[in-house]
Request: fold
Amino acid sequence: MQLSLLAIDWVLFLDKVILVAIILLLSLFVAMYETWAERKVAALMQDRRGPNRAGPGGILQPLADGLKLFMKEEVIPGTSNRFLFVLGPGLAMLTAMLTSAVVPWSSFFNIHGRHVDLQIADVNIGLLYIFGVVSMGVYGVMIGGWASNNKFSLLAAVRGASQIISYELAMGLSIIALLMITGSLSLRTIVEQQQHSGWYNIVWQPLGFLIFLVCAFAECNRTPFDLSEADSELNMGFHLEYSSMKLGFYLFSEYVNMFISSAVMATLYFGGYDIPFVNDASLAQHWGQNPVAIIQAVVFFAKIALFILFFMWVRWTVPRFRYDQLMRLGWKGLIPLAIFNMLITGFIVLWHANHWHLVK
Amino acid sequence: MQPLTSRGQAVDRRPMNVWERMYLPAIARGMSITFGHMFKKRPTVNYPEKQRPFSRVFRGLHVLNRDEEGRERCTACGLCALACPAEAITMEGAERAPGEEGLYREEKYAAKYEINMLRCIFCGLCEEACPKDAVYLSESIAPANFNRKGFIYGKEDLLIPDPKTEPEAYAKARGERVERGERAGNK
Reply:
């Protein structure tokens, strides 16, 4: 049905607004419980128990943490640049949330004959959009460090920013190899191709996946690449001067970034919302499209949860890299490796297009 | 110079081999160790629900003792205050009036007896110094408090309950402690 007032499809607008609200709240909720999971997983790996006093198993601990952050006193240093000081965390959170707009969360709902896509915007340059937004994430770090008017914060911010831009290059190069295979930048097309081909992209691109994984760790400022927030070296780095909710925003944006990176990795290399070992189309005919869409969303979240667990697992295993080791890995290790991956993939794709003959 | 033990090893300065230079096999091994720790038994004790047992000679809060008839043993001789390395004990003596024979054992008694828990190091030297077996350290832990005043324990806080009037409380406060005169077969 199409209500034509002002020639805009109001129902579509309403659909998208509701979807945006749900996904935003979901990202925040998942980021909140990621803090709980982080503390629990860290404790389990360190032979202790983690928070278990606030609610059964410590489930209400993130609420207590959030309440504490809200209640703290907002301190804005007098000598800082006030506008930029408040803008920094906002930018960090903005770029973290924007990337969730193109991730396909599930196939589609069929509500009263109306086809409702569970993806906010299926742009046909989805992957490029994600890279653009992630590049903007550097601003959050830099502005936070600069606006604090503090040499330590500035040093940490500069290190953090240089780390992020170095690893973006390797990430982009590894994606180009994937693009050669899929031929499309739209994330939904990539997932559908994995659904129909029966093999997930990790099988075709194991080296690419490895490079992308390492770069995702570096983008999220996550150990072993967390020298911009290294407590023992730089006194908390670029979020030294922040308190209360602005600090909360920085910390939260790191967790939202982790969540979205896991979602992107699951989409590109592990089939996204596809239920493994099951033919989704025939399942949809037996059970109806809506239940299957819900199951697909649950499967997607399970994949994301496994990736997040992996992020935390690596955090408590690997020691932090020194700045020069990190830069050497990024420029002299990963970029040549990504280019090599591209060459191999290109060679195989052309060979395949030539029907497996080396000459005409 | 001669090495002191035979366990010294020369530092391994060989260059990394191909497996080590890739870092990934070593990281994978480390990750399997961390993963294994998730399934091991945790040594954490859920404190208020479960408590680890203390030994019988645990030195906790002080208790001022009475004898079997309920008379206070302390005579304010000052040996515990002298022995205390942290100078935590202070006292004031007083003379026993004629009608108070049931309250105090000898003619001199402690009218004010204060121990400052913030200074006390729970060493037990006061217990060893007392000739009358009047002060000893029991099993309870000194509880926390918000101001300094709450940590200065006076005579009322330290005195054991009277065995004549409150026998159960007295028995509970005595715990398993053995009288000094009864130890080593000296009845």
Residues 18 and 84 of chain B are 65 Å apart (CA to CA). Residues 24-37 of chain B form the longest helix (14 residues). Helices of chain B lie at 18-21, 24-37, 79-83, 125-129, 155-158, 167-174.
